[in-house]
Input
Amino acid sequence: MTSSRKYFKKGEVTEHYAKKPNGGGLAYLSSGPEDGPLVIFVHGWPELSVSWRYQLPVLGAMGFRAVAPDMPGYGRSDVYDTYEAYSLENLVKEMMFLIDSLGAEKAVWVGHDWGSMVVSAVASHHPERCLAVANLALPFFTGDLGLDGFVGTVDRSVYPADKYPSGQWEYMNYYIENFERANKAFDENPVNSIKALFRSGDPSGVGKPNPSAEVRKNDGWFGQGRGAPDVPLDEKVLSEEDLHQYASALKKHGFFGPDAYYMNSERNEEFAKRMANGGYLDMPVLFVIADYDFYCECNRSQLADQMRKRCRKLTAVSVESSHWIAQEKPVEVNAALVHWLATEAKVWPTLAPPKWGPIKS
Output
């Protein structure tokens, strides 16, 4: 990952590296006082810690200790060469290492996309390490059960089973069946790949099949195993500097690590069988729905049904956004997160009493 200094004012957000005893470690960004309530932001595919560039300085300035790691396989963190290294069980272990290295017993965990699955797995396997949990775009108890957990929620009025057996999740089957080919297409031109993937919300897509449903049939995201076309940058989601950050990291390590997250369906399903508390969450949970996210479509499908059932203190908020919700609509996401922290999670920085001297007569 290139330096974050162009993003943040001096001292506003700082770069760190948590070293593991046997070598390697996790890179992370941090904002706010070290004694503030800890909030750990976990990014998704194919992002970086700077995906939280609009959240870190805001929460840090409010007195929280806001931390965002480069997840394994990304940026300056450990990169592995096996699929199983990116299973949810191993990713949870990585997060336990991170929170231990920060010297904290508990945190508020905030995740997006694959990061949502990771923080959900932290909450369902280590509830004792959670003050509260927030998911953006992807709800709890979906991919925790492997690919079948997604497919069982598909809206068949949009994705008939005979045409789209796995609905909008057909692209996951493509990874499983053609991993090297899928990986090569993204690696061909990371700049173009990021520009093609990071697009803003479009309400005209409501009720229509998402392009991800065609990936398997078309032999790749961009057809016939080809790399991404050169499309204009969508500045509602990314700036040129953002594009450079993502692309430079992906040029360095490639898409193997990010794509390998999708190659652990059976392992993740086995891990889910060991959830604590029968797979129910008792801590406060926030779900921020992206109305125009047609990957993780929640308003008209059953994708969030299990979350509504299994989270006993659930708050849900909708934002008119694409899948890249924290970057496209940061003001709305920050407002939802801060309001929930104050009113439902009841996690807030402690304010010091004033140091008044005696009243002068």
